Amino acid sequence: MADPSSPDVVSDLPEHRYDAAVAQRIEGEWQDRWEAEGTFHTPNPVGPLSEGFDAVADRPKQYVLDMFPYPSGVGLHVGHPLGFIGTDVYARYLRMTGHNVIHTMGYDAFGLPAEQYALQTNTHPRVTTEANIANMRRQLRRLGLGHDPRRSISTTDPAYYRWTQWIFLQIFGSWYDADAQRARPVTELEAELDAGTRAPAPGTNPSGTPWPELDPSGRRAVLNAHRLAYLAEVPVNWCPGLGTVLSNEEVTADGRSERGNFPVYRRPMKQWMLRITAYADRLIDDLDHLDWTDAIKAQQRNWIGRSTGARVSFATPAGALDVFTTRPDTLFGATYMVVAPEHPMVPALTAASWPDGTPASWTAGAAAPGAAVSTYVTTASRRSDLDRQTDTKEKTGVFTGTYATNPANGEAVPVFVADYVLMGYGTGAIMAVPAHDHRDFEFARSFDLPIVEVIRPSAAWLSDHGAVEGAPASTWPDAYVGDGVAVNSANAEVSLDGLAVADAKATITAWLEAEGLGEGTVQFKLRDWLFSRQRYWGEPFPIVFGDDGEPRALPESALPLVLPPMEDFSPKTSDDESSEPEPPLGRVTEWTTATIDLGDGEGPQEYRRETNTMPNWAGSCWYELRYLDPTNTATFVDPENERYWMGPREPGDVGGVDLYVGGVEHAVLHLLYARFWHKVLFDLGHVSSREPFRRLFNQGMIQAYAYRDERGFPVEAADVVKDGDRYLLAGTEVTRELGKMGKSLKNAVAPDEMCERYGADTLRLYEMFGGPLDQSRPWDTTAVVGMYRLLQRIWRLFVDEDDGTPRTSFDEPSEDTTRALHRTIDAVRDGMETLRFNTSIARITELTNHLTAAYPDGGVPKDIAEPLVLLLAPLAPHIAEELWARLGHESSLTYQDFPVAQEDLLVEDAVEIPVQVNGKVRSRIIVPVAADAAAIETAARDDEKVAALLADATVRKVIAVPGKMVNFVVG
RNA sequence: GCCCGGGUGGCGGAAUGGCAGACGCGGAGGACUCAAAAUCCUCUGUCCGAAAGGGCGUGCGGGUUCGAGUCCCGCCCCGGGCACCA
Q1: What does pTM read for this prediction?
Q2: Which nucleotide is nearest to A796 (CA to C1')?
Q3: Which helix (H) or strand (E) is A930 found in, with range?
Q4: Under 8 Å CB-to-CB from A946, ≥6 apart: which residues?
Q5: Which residues 768-807 of A interface with strand B at a CB distance below 7 A?
């Protein structure tokens, strides 16, 4: 393709044609002017940014937000700004429809990617991060995005992370009051403990010493164990390849790090945890109030994984063995039990010798249970999580030699150790009901255990599975997990027989509770959030440790706790699973200890600093709040500003950002964490909104063709040429595939390149025209020219290409053209409201084509030209501003009223409608729009073609829909 | 296995249950030009036909309806998420 911006091609083109050079000149000029005039400055109700608020106070507000980017070293490719352009078009439309719109952009610059880039380039991350942000700002500015530049933040700025640390201290300073269903300050807990109105929560006071008798250190330990941010020795995801631990959300399904794809190992370590599990119910329940896609809601629900069931206690010689089950109704069918290899009761459950009659297959060939169990447990511990998850075909396990008692029917049931039961979920032990659980069925088959039917399968299931009605469950080909009526489920006190599953669950749970054998419970898959990282480039924790080893909060006056400069900030990575994490900050010896007065009455003391840093997610958990009040030094956001921009609209409303646009990849990471932080801030009274993001929209991904040579290596996509059906690189055929745009597939296209070849407005239109914003689509550089041509045609309607003089007129537009304009206005608005900008662009194209045909020699009336420019403005703002100025307007069109369609002009006098015979279109007739059913039927019968078709047929029925169609049913 | 999306021309995509394929790319032809580029105009789902016209067409099979891309039932395929979660 020819490069229209190259001089030898341009030479004999009309001087004033809209080409890349003209576009870039216009774009630069308008970007400068917007900046100089502060066009996109948005006033706040109060505080430093409140100037000008009175003028817009009566307008409705809108908060339009993008997921802010990582400032990566390679800069943006054209896939990145898809969502940014979408929100910009929408925000510009909202400004033109009378809204006070807040829209800005920040940078999520802490964390692994930034640190890894710094390591690669052997430069301090502060330096690379700032350079990358500057480059990205330049790239985004070039796209003409209407951001309020005063509100931009970077998470790495001490003025920003000062408040990240402050929020952490709020979390550290809180505990979850399960009765009140909300977080409360720990000071209130302490007061209640002192007053004796509350006892320490279970598990928070291991010594068992009553609160009044505890020494200060013991009391501190009890309080610390209640906090929403706490240190705990728990199995964590240790990633030696990155030299840090990771959260569950950062580990992929196959047990590797999401960043870098390094192996991850489960190991107990003492780390910071955030008690997100306290919010599990609310995080699920409040999804109902959010305008998010079902897909994202489903992913969050799935990740939180709420299961309702019962805890049931089985008596064993080693004491009570508790299990969690979602099917307490099948308790009578529990014919054996399984504990996870890591279960703490395994040693106690292991008998001294095999009971008489133990089948050989249960013993793994060992002479005694002790040998069999220890061999099995050792083997299981060596198997990686990956093995245990993928190897689901063959169930393994050994008998412990111990029998438990089924509390429902008093039967002795053998207890097995098997790795298909996971220590990390429920109690790490299960009651096995082989007749009604696929896994238990499989295990029972392997070990020849009894399979007892306690739910009667449906007849359909029996016949589908070739099972005979009334035959024993042991002859079934598989477990029956469906609904049905309970059978074989009665003892002297309770009978489930005849009850449906739901009723049986309720009945047996009530009985278990009455007998003290169990209780109804809710179980979650969600674990607490592992919050510390052994990396340099993150927020330092505002925490110090005293001699007792218990953490203490730094006073607010010590914030920000600035990240100390380091020459060598590299993490200690390893490929050794047994290596120990070593936070880089631990090497800054002059920083790790400090004498501080914590304001707790102890006076200045020497303390040891926490040397871990926060994960990169910390900064993104609250940035939407900081945009509201970015320069406030007294608080993280003034409550009045928060209430104005994000507060509930009516009682019961959850509040939040009006539109949040970003990629689907954050479904369970950022979006879950940010909701959690927001809810803590809500509980503590710092924000009025219960949820951060009222409406979420996931933009699609721009994919790109990638090409590989015969060895399978990607080749520079830009150098490949098409030859018929083949793709050639320097004459050699290469294969084509569609993939993610990026460096690794050598198929990235930079927005700068598109701006140079066509201008930013063309790029914006092309990105918006490809399809609905939520759809992924391939990038096709050759198709960009379509939008370029559109802008050239529009330009030509206004500007003489040869001498640059205006071409519009003051003529009265024809009725035809006026109607076309109003139909366009109506359709463009619809596309804007529904974020289907592709249809808006199509309608603008149609109007342009109409005007080109109607006014071939120029002279488009101003009454048409002006609305056309305004319709185009949100999509292609630079050319629209330029044409608006050339039409004689002095100020920016940013706050001009968006055109409104006149209803009466949308209705045509006459319409062409199809006439069908038996549902097939046979003719078309033109009828007055107001014609009733009888009139259009008559008109249809008068049509020649229709009359011929009806001539020798019997009309059985006529459907005539005024303004739509006529259908004759003949037969 | 379970849970979400999604299947419409060569491609991206349009269509409140009422004219399938708007708009754009690509392709074919033409105008302008010494020539080309750029620009503009015409055509472009598919099959039969010289044409007029007609048949067939929204992943597959049924159904509801005067009428289905759209609603219902059962499948197939593609993409994403979760996955021995009791």
Answers
A1: 0.93
A2: B39
A3: none
A4: A915, A917, A922, A923, A940, A968
A5: 769-772, 775-778, 780, 782-783, 785-790, 792-793
Residue–nucleotide distance: A725 CA to B28 C1' (Å) = 17
Which strand (E) or helix (H) includes residue A184? strand A182-185
Q: What's the CA A9/C1' B35 distance, rounded, in angstroms?
A: 15
Of A4-18, A389-403, A801-815, the range with the highest mean pLDDT is A801-815
Handedness of CA A194, A195, A200, A205 (dihedral sign): positive
CB half-sphere exposure, A644, CA atoms < 13 A? 25
Lowest mean pLDDT among A384-388, A570-574, A695-699, A840-844: A384-388
CA of A212 to C1' of B35 (A): 101
**If we measure between CA atoms, which residue out of A335, A330, A324, A331 comes closest to residue A457?**
A330
Other CB atoms within 10 A of residue A292 CB: 22
Comparing C-alpha atoms, which of A544, A548, A561 is closest to residue A595?
Answer: A544
Nucleotide minimizing C1' to CA distance for residue A965 = B18
- pLDDT for position A258: 79
Place of tokens 């910071």: A272
| CA atom of A863 to C1′ atom of B27, Å | 38
Asked if A245 and A233 touch (Cβ cutoff 8 Å), the reply is no
Q: How do beta strands A714-715 and A721-723 pair?
A: unpaired
| CA–C1' gap, A476 and B60, in angstroms | 33
For chain A, what percent of residues have pLDDT higher than 90?
A: 65
B27 C1' to A334 CA distance, Å? 69
> Would you give the DSSP letter of residue A587?
G
Tell me what percent of the residues of chain A surpass a pLDDT of 70.
Answer: 97
Q: What's the rounded Cα separation, in Å, for the pair A818 and A816? A: 6
Neighbours of A549 (CB within 10 A): 12
Q: Which residue is nearest to nucleotide B26 (CA to C1')?
A: A783
Tokens of A549: 């080893």
Range with the largest mean pLDDT of A450-459, A614-623, A918-927:
A614-623
- Please, which positions of strand B sit below 7 A from a protein CB? 3-5, 11-16, 18-20, 22-26, 36-41, 54-55, 66-68, 80-86
Relative orientation angle of helices A815-833 and A81-96, to the nearest 10 degrees: 120
Residues 398-437 of A with CB under 7 A from strand B: 419-426, 428, 430, 437
Residues 6+ apart with CB under 8 A from A914: A921, A923, A924, A965, A966
Residues 333-392 of A with CB under 7 A from strand B: 340, 388-389, 391-392
Distance CA(A696)–CA(A125), nearest Å, equals 32
Q: What is the DSSP string of A911-924?
A: EEEEEEETTEEEEE
**Does strand B come within 7 Å of the CB of A738?**
no
Could you tell me whether strands A412-417 and A485-486 are parallel, antiparallel, or unpaired per DSSP bridges? Answer: unpaired
